[in-house]
Amino acid sequence: MKKNENIFAAWNKIEHTHSFDFWNKVSKSCMKFMFSSFEENKYLIDCLKKNKNQTVLDYGCASGYVKRFLNFYFDSKLKYTGIDISTKSIELAKKNYGNEFFTVSEYENSEIKSKKFDIVYSRDTIMHQEEPWKFITTLISKTNNFLILK
Predict the structure, then answer these.
(1) Residues in CB range of 137: below 8 A, 6 or more apart
(2) CB proximity list for 132: less than 8 A, separation 6 or greater
(3) Burial (CB count <10 Å: 0-12, 13-18, 19+), residue 79
(4) pLDDT digits (tens, 9 = 90+) for 72-112
(5) Is the pTM of this model over 0.70?
(6) DSSP structure string for 6-32
């Protein structure tokens, strides 16, 4: 790989966005049943049920399907923020769930770098990191209470 080559360039293609948009296309009942079966999602719901006023940061939110999932359990006022490096995915997430919830950002130069959240959730992101331990350390530094990582 050439120096300064962006290994994630393909993630800004619409084809990539569509490949991760599966959860936004399944029926509500199917998504609630299937997505609720994952342990990390059960834990997320349990944490939020204890205190619905907690802030949630979804690192690697893709096209916003975790926001959709949370909407099944909590009202739209849930303090949710989703970030992803894919511009195309964030555009789709904003279209589906609202501009106020999503931003394009890398964790190293994030506009929300100085903020902390009660819950940091990141699903299927570590395997894509060039420096996974640095990434995990960053996620830990962003949370006040819970890090939910798969």
Answers:
(1) none
(2) 126
(3) middle
(4) 999 767 899 999 988 889 999 999 999 999 998 865 555 67
(5) yes
(6) -TTGGGGSHHHHHHT-HHHHS-HHHHH
User: What's the pLDDT tens digit per position in 88-97?
Assistant: 899 999 999 9
Torsion of CA 69, 33, 46, 77, to 10 degrees: 20
Nearest partner of 107 among 132, 131, 85, 127, judged by Cα: 85
3-state secondary structure at position 42: helix
Nearest-5° angle of CA 58, CA 64, CA 70?
A: 70
DSSP annotation string for 89-146: HHHHHHHHH-GGGEEE--GGG-TTTT--EEEEEE-S-GGG-SSHHHHHHHHHHTEEEE
- Tally the C-alpha atoms within 13 A of residue 125's C-alpha that lie toward its C-beta: 23
φ/ψ of 83, rounded to 5, equals -130, 150
Q: Rounded to whole angstroms, how far apart are CA atoms 122 and 8?
A: 17
Return the C-alpha torsion angle 11, 17, 18, 23, nearest 10.
Answer: 130
